[in-house]
Design brief:
The chain is of the alpha/beta class. It has a domain at 2-13 and 69-113 and 129-198: HAD superfamily/HAD-like (Rossmann fold, 3-Layer(aba) Sandwich), CATH 3.40.50. It has helices at residues 16-24, 39-53, 57-64, 73-83, 94-103, 132-142, 157-162, 173-178, 188-198, and strands spanning 2-6, 85-93, 108-116, 122-126, 146-151, 165-169, 184-185.
Length: 199
């Protein structure tokens, strides 16, 4: 039995923090897990910038409401889910992801949670578990699933490498160069083809 594990941002949807960086005019918020491998360091840095500018959950959610999935992502997910089980493993937060999950046809999402003060300030965050993507892939494997994983960032590499098949999708040149043994594709048709070959 197979289960396909997909990253969300950069694979199925635009990067939320990049979109918010553009909407807020704060270029520092463009930094993502493609740039910073240490997720906790990245999030502490982001929360510091939000606090400095007096921005909270409301402002980010207003930007997210304007974001659509990447062209072809909904059709890709529909076809993939007709072939096998699929789940999105993301380091995003439940308070960010719901509108995007609706636009993708409500696929299964496992992500993290923000801790928000009554005034809307994002004070911290709660990870679902340590090494969320790798831990989840290993848990699926422990109950009899073989995993196929695809992602674009540093934080996807562990789940990609732990799976029977791993694919880089729309990744950076630096990540592709550092992982030349991993297949790397740019189009949903090619991603679907590689997944089918491993089902």
């Amino acid at each position: 039995m197979n289960i396909v594990c997909l990253d969300m941002e950069g694979v199925l949807t635009p990067e939320i923090w990049i979109a918010f960086s553009e909407a807020s005019g704060i270029p520092e918020l463009r930094r993502t897990t493609r740039d910073e491998p240490d997720y906790n360091k990245l999030m502490r840095w982001r929360l510091g910038i939000l606090k400095e500018h007096g921005l909270g959950l409301k402002e980010i959610q207003e930007t997210i409401a304007t974001i659509d999935p990447l062209p072809g992502a909904k059709e890709f997910m529909d076809e993939l889910r007709s072939l096998t089980q699929a789940v999105i493993l993301s380091d995003t937060f439940s308070q960010f992801a719901q509108p995007l999950m609706k636009k993708l046809g409500w696929p299964t999402l496992m992500c993290n949670e923000l801790i928000v003060a009554p005034d809307g300030e994002i004070t911290s965050y709660r990870l679902r578990c340590e090494n969320t993507k790798l831990s989840t892939v290993k848990a699926f494997q422990s109950v009899g699933y073989e995993t196929i994983a695809a992602g674009d960032s540093f934080n996807d590499l562990a789940m990609i490498r732990a799976s029977k098949a791993g694919i880089l999708f729309r990744s950076t040149e630096a990540i592709k160069s550092a992982n030349p043994d991993l297949p790397a594709v740019e189009e949903f048709d090619d991603l679907l083809r590689l997944i089918k070959e491993n089902l």
